[in-house]
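Quick one:
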Amino acid sequence: MKSPDLFRFTAGLLVGLLAAGLLLNSPDWVKIARAGADQAGQPSIQVIPVQISRENQGIAMVDTRSKTIWVYELFDRQTGFKQIRLMAARTWEYDRLLNEWNSAEPTPQQIRNALENIHQQQMIEAIGPGEPVGTTEIKSKTDTTGTGN
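Output:
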């Protein structure tokens, strides 16, 4: 290696190690700043790359303050120009209040019922298969009268 190339390599390596060290050992004020991003005046929109289809990419934008998500498709359709299309948008503010929606079987209610049935069966087995009250007295009376004749 030439000395300028060696210098660039060494400088790049040091910058990379420094960045990795900062990410792994970030000070408390960085963690507090990240946690407070939803406070007023702080950015609340996160952009996440997503794979829409085999050939098309997209982005999902999530606004944590207004509890909204938007999904955009980025594509190039025979025009030679990059295009963007809004595929979906919705709020999830009230979604957290739903217990069950569009659930495939077994649904949460079916699982709850099955677990309750299992719990009841375990309770019955724990009590034991004892004879009903009064049954032993009836058997003893019929046995004594039936054997004496």
